[in-house]
Amino acid sequence: MSTLDAKTRGRTAPGRLRALDAYLCRFEPRLLSRVDGAWARAVFVDVGFGEHPWTTLESAEAFRVLQPELTVIGVELEEARALAAQVHAGPRTHFRQGGFELPLSADEPARLVRAMNLLRQGPAERVSDVHHALGRFLLPSGLLVEGSSDPEGSVLTAHLLRRASADGDAPPMREALLFHTDFRNGFAPLLFRDWLPRDLRRRVRPGEPMHTFFQAWMEAWRQAREAGHTSPPDAFRESVTRLGTRLGGVAMDAWLLDSGYLVWRPEGGVSP
């Protein structure tokens, strides 16, 4: 156990990260399916799967539609949980005890590392160190996904961090923020504030980029409702469309808007 690691409750629910799986399958198909060179050995790592490996197994099923031979490795800090998950192991599905210093061998580079709902507690200052530690295992252009969701997966936010070069000492680039809701709890932009990644939760204050972002989205949402877009899905779609006209980096893909996703790629990346 490294100084970066901290025990979590480990509670999760089936389906909690399916919206994240769906996004990755649609917008990162080459990352998930690539098999040339070192990518033939590149794995997907699910860090901190908890008491039950439901999310790991669900992701394995989703991603193997794109790459049937994909190796999936579930990592859990508590040894008892890692041992209990072995009943679900198979030729391409492995469960290992470990933390942010991932238990990968030299011939297991990572194409995708996911660490959801692990950093909500503890100091925000450790987040960049965790990103750096996890990013070391990625192949160039590999992706690290780190963030939070509510217990049911109805509201989710995540950093999308890309390893830009072969330099293992370089931290992954903070490429984008991903937001998703299934509208089970209605919709207003501030619905996401409490589920921001740990290092951004206290940055929604005047003078900070996250405050500017939410202020612009709230204004777009109010205007959308005043224009008659009052149902949660309609208000979401219209508010994101209006936000995109006043704030750079907002993805305007129709599937995203219709499915409750917002992706924000500010120029220069997401400010820490």
UniProtKB/TrEMBL annotation:
Q: From which domain of life does this come? A: Bacteria
Q: Name one GO biological process term.
A: methylation
* Molecular function in Gene Ontology: methyltransferase activity
| Sorted UniProt keywords | Methyltransferase, Transferase
The protein depicted here goes by the name Methylase
Annotated source species: Myxococcus llanfairpwllgwyngyllgogerychwyrndrobwllllantysiliogogogochensis
